[in-house]
Each structure stands twice: as C-alpha cells, then as structure tokens.
Design brief:
heterodimer; A: about 170 residues; mainly alpha; Alpha-Beta Plaits; three-stranded antiparallel beta sheet; 6 helices; elongated; B: about 130 residues; about 0% strand
C-alpha cells in the first residue's frame, strides 16, 4: 500500500505545493481548482522525477519556518540599512568588497538556497561558486570588515541550512 | 473604521514607493557596475512587498474577499530575482575581473567562471 502511494506521489511536498499554487492562481477556493490542481500536482512530479535523482529530505520542518522568518526579518532590516547607505553615504566613503565564504554545505539544493538568500537580503549579492563548489563569492555593497560579513552569513544562514538539509 | 484601514493601506503603499525610489536612485548614484547590481534587489524585496501587502489588505478588509495570489508574486520573485542577479554578476566577472582581483577561492583555487575559461574539460561534479 505504501509503495503504491509512493508510486503515485513520488514527491508529496511538491504535489501539495503545486496544488496550493494552482488554487492561489485561481484566487478563489473551489472544488474545480482543487481537482485540477491535484491533477497537475500528480502529473508534474511524475514527469520531472528523473531530474532529481537524489534530492535531500527535509526533516526539520519547524527549522524551515524559523529560517523563513529569520530571512524575512533580515530583509526588512537590511533594506533600511541599504537605503541609508544609498541616500546618505557619499560614494567615496563606501567600501564595496568581495567576500569569499568557505562552505560547509555540500548538498547542491542547500547551496542554492543559501546563495538565493544572500542575494535577496539587500547589501550582499552572491556572484560565483568556486570551481569545485567549496566556496561562495559574495559581493558586499558596503563592508569595511570582511570577516564580520562572513561570520554573520555562516552563523545566521549556513548553520540553520545545515540543520535543515544535512 | 474605513479611514483606519485606508491609513494602513496607504502606509504600505508609501513604504513601497520610498524603497522603489531608493532602488532606482541607487542605480544612478552608485558608480561601479557590481554595486549597481545591489539596487534592483532592494526594489524587488520591500518595494514590491509593500504593494502586495497593501493589495491583500485592500481586498480582505475593504472588499471582504480573501485574495492571496499576491503571495505567488512574492514566490516567483524570490525564485527568479537571484538567478538574474547571478547572470549579471557572472557576466561581469567573465568580462572585467581577473582571477587576481578576486579573493582567494580556498582549496579550489579558481572561481567557476574563470575555471571554465582556462580548463577545456570542466571537471565532473564531485559527489560527496
């Protein structure tokens, strides 16, 4: 029975997400959109199955919620900081800097999430990965102290992602 | 009551307007291309977020209808914006930065953009 369920829903989270996205797109909850969303939610994971051969399992759901809240809060705070830099700091005083972040994460999905988070929090943009994927290159808008930025990213984001993915 | 709701909605709209403006202003003020890349990431986070919050408040509180497809805009933005930024950054590294200009890449020695230029066959992705 479990095996049959697994065959129909190879990726239950994706099925759930696709259904919810479809209902949100329709913008009013109805049986109609629920059924069609479920059909999409079954077909799409089934077709895309070969593209994620060994995807990581998310075990720690409370941590995922915590991570999203931390990132949202950081986005708001960093937005204000960056707005102050752009408006009030003279361009000559600003110290743009490259930061190299050695990665402890090894799962490609986790590194993707980390890089995306770094780009979405204003003030830092992730630019490149080292040749074998052991380091992440980040550009900072204003970073007099490179070590501080690196430690903060490792402390706030990478540690949490490690708990979620690995 | 309606006045209070409108006050909240206009607050969100003004916040998003300010951050949208700062994002565009940054494009003019910042001088180097890598710093300019930071400006649009501002506009897509709080700038767009403010409009979406205002839109949700408007439909829920004034029209009495739950409308949440604004959340999807946030979702799609968070998926696409980092990828665009990465493309532009990689182009910049490819055209304007030498390996000696960038910080140390640790044990791998080269950043991926430069490694592709120098090594003909790209090393296979190592699985751990």
């Amino acid at each position: 029975m479990m095996r049959l369920l697994h065959r129909i829903f190879p990726h239950p989270h994706l099925t759930f997400l696709l259904t919810v996205v479809w209902i949100l797109l329709a913008n009013k909850p109805s049986l109609n959109s629920l059924v069609f969303g479920l059909i999409l939610g079954i077909i799409i994971p089934f077709i895309t199955q070969p593209y994620w051969p060994d995807r990581p399992k998310l075990r720690n759901w409370p941590k995922v919620v915590e991570y999203m809240l931390v990132v949202l809060l950081d986005i708001v705070i960093a937005n204000i900081t960056v707005a102050r830099i752009i408006l009030f700091k003279r361009d000559a005083d600003r110290q743009p800097n490259w930061v190299s972040i050695p990665l402890e994460l090894r799962t490609p999905e986790a590194i993707t999430v980390l890089a995306g988070t770094i780009t979405m929090t204003p003030g830092t943009v992730s630019c490149d990965l080292s040749a074998q994927g052991h380091c992440l290159l980040v550009h900072c808008l204003d970073a007099p102290n490179v070590d501080e930025v690196r430690d903060q990213i490792k402390q706030r984001y990478e540690r949490r992602l490690k708990e979620i993915f690995e | 009551m309606t006045f209070l709701i409108e006050l909240v909605i206009s607050f969100f709209l003004i916040v998003s307007g300010i951050f949208g403006f700062v994002g565009s202003f940054g494009m003019i003020k910042l001088k180097d291309p890598m710093s300019r890349l930071h400006a649009p990431t501002k506009a897509t986070t709080l700038g767009v977020g403010g409009v979406l919050l205002a839109s949700i408040c408007h439909s829920v509180l004034l029209e009495g209808m739950l409308s949440l497809h604004e959340l999807l805009i946030t979702l799609f933005l968070f998926l696409t914006a980092p990828i665009t930024a990465l493309f532009i950054a990689k182009w910049h590294i490819h055209r304007h930065e030498k390996p000696s200009d960038l910080p140390d890449a640790g044990e791998d020695e080269l950043w991926a953009t430069h490694a592709v230029e120098q090594v003909e066959d790209v090393p296979a992705h190592t699985k751990t």
